[in-house]
Amino acid sequence: MGTENAATRVASALRTDILQGDISPGARLSQQDTAARFGVSRIPVRDALQILAGEGLVRPSTNATAVVAGLSVAELQELYELREAIEPLATRLAVPNVGRAELLSMRKQLDIMDSQVDARVWLSANAAFHAAVYRQANRPRMIELVEQLRCQTDRYMYIHLETIGQTEHLSVEHRGILAAVERGDAALAADLTREHLATSHDFILTYLLKEQAEVSGSGGRSSFPSST
Questions:
Q1: How many whole angstroms separate alpha carbon 71 and alpha carbon 204?
Q2: Conformation bin of residue 123: beta by default, left when phi > 0, alpha when psi is -120 to 50
Q3: Rounded to an integer, what distance in angstroms lies between the CA atom of residue 192 and that of residue 207?
Q4: Are strands 65-68 and 28-30 parallel, antiparallel or unpaired?
Q5: Residue 88: CB partners within 8 Å, gap ≥ 6?
Q6: What kind and span of H or E run contains 29?
Q7: Residues 6+ apart with CB under 8 A from 178
Q8: pLDDT in tens, 75-132
Q9: Could you give the CA distance from residue 38 to residue 33 in angstroms, rounded to a whole number?
Q10: Domains of the chain, CATH where assigned
Q11: Which residues contact 81 (CB under 8 A, 6 or more apart)?
Q12: Can you give the residue ranges of the HTH gntR-type domain (predicted)?
């Protein structure tokens, strides 16, 4: 297996572990230990950690290590503020270019999300649903930024799916977006995308603030500090 393929494989596995919380915020990832875990040299591990650093999931540290980025209310706010500004614009630009293939893909991903209880599969289908639209905006830098923000936000969405649950409203919102795209109503699709993001933002923020208050009241330590 080439170094590039090995780096991609290691990055994918570490990304999944981080998103699911199997590797905790603040954990240190050494190149040596990670290489031993995956049975590869340190070079693909170094490259994998660089990939994850570019996605905002880890931060480079000293002695050939990286630290898993923390979760915080402040970060959640910033991520969603950015997404709520950019993704409706991507939607508005994209809708006139959405064709039959994209609509078929959106319907397929909706069916997957409606039939899945596995958060990982749901998140993957959710990303594909929205990407089917956004990519038609023909704004590669914008789409790259959207993907980076989504990847970082998925850590919080995993909390939504695994802890909060309540995905029925997400299905309704997705179908509303699809209907607007099918009609070619770019303005409505953009508005619905903004509302969709705001709903998820509110759900997760409410949970994190409640969890923070409960832990603070009990004298413990919250997993979600008010700032990183």
A1: 12
A2: alpha
A3: 23
A4: antiparallel
A5: 190, 191, 193, 194
A6: strand 28-30
A7: 103, 106, 107, 110
A8: 999 999 999 999 999 999 999 999 999 999 999 999 999 987 788 889 999 999 999 9
A9: 9
A10: 3-68 (1.10.10.10), 73-217 (1.20.120.530)
A11: none
A12: 4-76
Alpha carbon distance 54, 225 (integer Å)? 23
Strand pairing partners for 28?
67
| C-alpha pair distances (Å), 217 with each of 84, 183, 206, 209, 224 | 32, 50, 16, 12, 14
pLDDT band at 183 (very low <50, low <70, confident <90, very high): very high
Average pLDDT of the chain is 89
Helix (H) / strand (E) element for 28: namely strand 28-30
Q: For residue 60, what are the β-bridge partners?
A: 66
Q: Are 202 and 169 in contact (CB under 8 A)?
A: no
Upper half-sphere CA count for residue 7 (Cβ side, 13 Å): 14
Residue 59 has a CB neighbour count (10 Å cut-off) of: 15
Summary count for the chain: helices (H), strands (E): 9, 3
Task: Quote the DSSP letter at residue 77.
Answer: H
- Provide the whole-model pTM: 0.80
Q: Where residue 212 falls among pLDDT bands split at 50, 70, 90? A: confident
pLDDT of residue 174: 97
Q: Which residues have a Cβ under 8 Å from the Cβ of 188 and sit 6 or more positions away?
A: 180
